[in-house]
Amino acid sequence: MDRPSELVPLRYVAIGGRGPEDVVSDARGRVLTGVEDGRILRIDGLTEPSGARVEVLAETGGRPLGLELLPDDALLVCDAELGLLRVDLGEGIVRILADSVAGERLRFCSNAVALSDGSVCFTVSSRRYPLDQWIGDLVEHTGTGRLLRLAPGSESPEVLLEGLQFANGLALSADESFLVVAETGARRLTRYWLTGDRAGRSDPFVENLPGMPDNLWRGTPDGPVWVSLAGPPVPPLDLLHRTAPAVRGAAARIAVRAPFRPTGTIGALAVDDQGTIVHRLARRRSGYRMVTSVCEAAGHLVLGSLWERGIAVCERPAPK
């Protein structure tokens, strides 16, 4: 793997809320995100000397995580407390699309994509741990993550893939033949085939990532999939994952009670549809920590974080 280029935040934009976990951009270069108190925000004027403007679009009443813009001025929201939501950006109306699967409550929806046939695919990170105990799932290595699909007009999602290690970000290939799923707990991207003779099967897409992948974002079909790296590899954690389930469970009970502070190592990757890494960006000792999302907006890269109280604006690498 090539030596990474420097990922240097040029500007920090305070947004009046904590934890902009996912960031997505619209055609006008504005950034949308959700914060800890349930608000959906839109940030405009990222590069203007007078400063950025923050607008409240809606309030979910839960904890919004992954976002997906829809062409009809609406937003898909994966809410860790409420399930899969649809938000009308003009009126601010929030509607629950799905809050359970086979009678089990959706407690940790993570990221979603919309397909051209009107269906929505989305991930559930853990069936055992809620968002505020996310570290427990990474330590115990539960493998309870899922990939789900909600058909048009349905309220009951179907399970496409399970046994995932903290299923997280989700992106669609340019021709909609497969989905890319980030498995944070396994440091890999997994491919799930939607069409062709391999439909319904999965295989590794990119393995041994130089960090823990979180949200994925793709601006256009001909652009790369951006992968945020929320933290560096942790060799002791890799060793723990090889121990007995009882040992991992005991370690997880300790981890969820211990104080957590993210490292200063941040990173992002861009991957094409062949699984080739076309950009690798990283920085140690960054003042902006725990990068859980990345998108392109207004000619820059924008970073989001579950930890921070704002977004970071970085230089975008030259196309390859």
From TrEMBL:
Q: Which InterPro entries match?
A: 6-blade_b-propeller_TolB-like, Strictosidine_synth_cons-reg
Q: Which residues form a coiled coil?
A: none
Ranges where the Strictosidine synthase conserved region domain occurs: 115-196
The domain of life for this entry's organism is: Bacteria
An annotated Gene Ontology molecular function: hydrolase activity
Q: Name the Pfam families for this protein.
A: SSL_N, Str_synth
Q: Which Gene3D superfamilies match?
A: TolB, C-terminal domain
Keywords, A to Z, come to:
Glycoprotein, Phosphoprotein
What PANTHER family does UniProt report for this protein, alphabetically? ADIPOCYTE PLASMA MEMBRANE-ASSOCIATED PROTEIN HEMOMUCIN-RELATED, STRICTOSIDINE SYNTHASE-RELATED
**Which family does the record claim for this protein?**
Belongs to the strictosidine synthase family.
Instruction: Specify the protein name.
Output: SMP-30/gluconolactonase/LRE family protein
